Amino acid sequence: MINFNKAEFAGAAGTSEQLILSDLPEVVFSGRSNVGKSSLINKLLGRKYLARVSATPGKTATINFFKCDGFFLVDLPGYGYAKVSQSEKMRWAELVEGYFAQERKIALVVQIVDMRHSATPDDMQMLEFLSANGLPYIVVLTKKDKLNKTEQQKRLEVFKEQFEDLGDIRMYAFSALKGDGADEIRNAVSACVEEYGKE
């Protein structure tokens, strides 16, 4: 079993040339700005401030690598923030596309969506890209604690409908506040990293 508390910052890349060598399985975290990505990473790794939680959406402009127990956790910059300049959006696209274009050892992509809202066109584009390229992924629905049980159920039905063309997607509802869903997500990550190691 992977020890999720064993994690350290391993480097950041602002351009695709700066990406670190892919010599371990990689678990990639992707989602729009302000979706709760840093809070999810910190909760999974049992740390408060390992991934920086930015008060300004769109501020994280690098791909950050964290060396964990037998794998790299890869934190992609958040997308879809309107106030970012066009040149910055282009740099972001070059960086992320450059990451996926390389021969990376991607064991799993954790695509993060705010449970309170339908997936955005950017979210859908990312999911369609992952599906089209045969990359293994799960969807984590954040901010679960902002909804009551009935609302949560309704939102899950909406997502099932929204994602139906993509096949059978594993979805995990998550609360950074209460930690709901964290163990299930850790288990999913562990299984994919261990499976990748056998290939």
Description:
The protein has helices spanning 37-44, 86-101, 121-132, 149-162, 182-198; strands at 8-13, 26-31, 63-67, 72-75, 106-114, 137-142, 171-173. The chain is an alpha/beta fold and 199 residues long. The chain has a single domain (8-198), classed as P-loop containing nucleotide triphosphate hydrolases (Rossmann fold, 3-Layer(aba) Sandwich), CATH 3.40.50.300. Strands 1-3-4-2-5-6-7 form a 7-stranded mixed sheet, with helices on both faces. α3 (121-132) links the parallel β5 (106-114) and β6 (137-142). The two termini are 18 Å apart.
Multimerization state: single chain
- Give the termini separation: 18 Å
Classification by helices and strands: alpha/beta
Poorly predicted runs of 5 or more residues: 54-58
Number of helices: 5
Radius of gyration: 16 Å
The CATH homology group name: P-loop containing nucleotide triphosphate hydrolases
Report on the biggest sheet: 7 strands, mixed
Would you report the number of β strands? 7
- Beta-strand portion reads 15-25%
How would you state the average pLDDT, rounded? 90
Helix-strand sequence: EEHEEHEHEHEH
Widest sheet: strand order? 1-3-4-2-5-6-7
CATH topology: Rossmann fold
- What is the number of domains? 1
Task: Kindly provide the name of the CATH class.
Answer: Alpha Beta
What best-fitting shape do the alpha-carbon axes yield? globular
